[in-house]
């Protein structure tokens, strides 16, 4: 069960240099199945960092949250596919047309079920956001309502899953069914601090709730012994998977 847990653990590679990224990949490759490359690292290092992770046998979650006109996002999605990433994401708030166009372009070159096709994910509401955040944007519906609404929009457009807080997993499952992938940030084991995440839960609770992948960064990177911290998280995840 540890191997299954490892496949579901995504380490947030929130660093600012290729050398630092290489250090973390070398340190954690036996405990982490997927490495998340976000805006900071990709802006600094570009596709080189994705290739470095893949050359080392790791998988990549390209977390760039594309949000633009439909054709621009669709073409960026094709480039993500060509890089060989395991998953990438867009903002569901970009709308149904943007997501449908992206799916159509990816389908043309990477049909469903084909080798090399990544998971297409949509971001619902950022885990740092609250109901007040949405009100400031002119959205008068609460987070708990917006998340499943956006998830259903993504599913109807042909996306494979969403990135969402574990507290909304049950609602997403009800809206989108059991086979819809859910990638969950905002996960904090009991030994770690909450930091700036507002809607958080433990790894075990997230898996029991129905999350498929867990994104964890600072609880590992800020630990005195990152390998030990990752190992403890894997054990917690494995126990939760075994109990399901």
TrEMBL record:
Name the enzyme's class.
Answer: lyase
Q: Which residues form the active site?
A: 63 (for ompdecase activity), 65 (proton donor), 65 (for ompdecase activity), 68 (for ompdecase activity)
Gene from which this protein is expressed: pyrF
Which InterPro entries does UniProt cross-reference here? Aldolase_TIM, OMPdecase, OMPdecase_AS, OMPdecase_bac, OMPdeCOase_dom, RibuloseP-bd_barrel
Q: How does it assemble?
A: Homodimer.
**What Pfam families does this protein's entry cite?**
OMPdecase
> According to its UniProt record, which protein family does this protein belong to?
Belongs to the OMP decarboxylase family. Type 1 subfamily.
GO terms for biological process?
'de novo' pyrimidine nucleobase biosynthetic process; 'de novo' UMP biosynthetic process
Give the Orotidine 5'-phosphate decarboxylase domain ranges: 8-233
Residues spanning the signal sequence: none
For this protein, what reaction is catalysed?
Answer: orotidine 5'-phosphate + H(+) = UMP + CO2
Residues involved in substrate binding: 14, 36, 63-72, 127, 188, 197, 217-218
UniProt GO MF annotations: orotidine-5'-phosphate decarboxylase activity
Q: What is this protein called?
A: Orotidine 5'-phosphate decarboxylase
């Amino acid at each position: 069960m540890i191997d299954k847990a490892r496949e579901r653990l995504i380490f947030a590679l929130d660093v600012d240099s290729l050398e630092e990224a290489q250090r973390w990949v070398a340190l954690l490759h036996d405990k982490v199945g997927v490495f998340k490359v976000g805006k900071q690292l990709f802006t600094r290092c570009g596709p080189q960092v994705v290739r470095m992770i893949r050359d080392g046998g790791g998988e990549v979650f390209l977390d760039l949250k594309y949000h633009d006109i439909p054709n621009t996002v669709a073409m960026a999605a094709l480039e993500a596919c060509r890089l060989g990433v395991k998953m990438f994401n867009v903002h569901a708030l970009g709308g149904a047309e943007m997501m449908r166009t992206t799916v159509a372009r990816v389908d043309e070159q990477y049909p469903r079920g084909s080798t090399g096709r990544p998971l297409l994910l949509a971001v619902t509401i950022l885990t740092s956001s609250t109901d007040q955040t949405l009100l400031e944007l002119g959205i008068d519906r609460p987070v708990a309502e917006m998340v499943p609404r956006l998830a259903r929009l993504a599913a109807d457009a042909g996306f494979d899953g969403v990135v969402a807080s574990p507290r909304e997993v049950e609602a997403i499952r009800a809206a989108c069914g059991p086979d819809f992938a859910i990638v969950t940030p905002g996960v904090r084991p009991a030994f770690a601090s909450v930091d700036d995440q507002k809607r958080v839960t433990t790894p075990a609770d997230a898996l029991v709730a129905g999350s498929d992948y867990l994104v964890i960064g600072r609880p590992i990177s800020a630990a005195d012994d990152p390998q030990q911290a990752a190992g403890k998280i894997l054990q917690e995840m494995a126990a939760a998977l075994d109990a399901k």
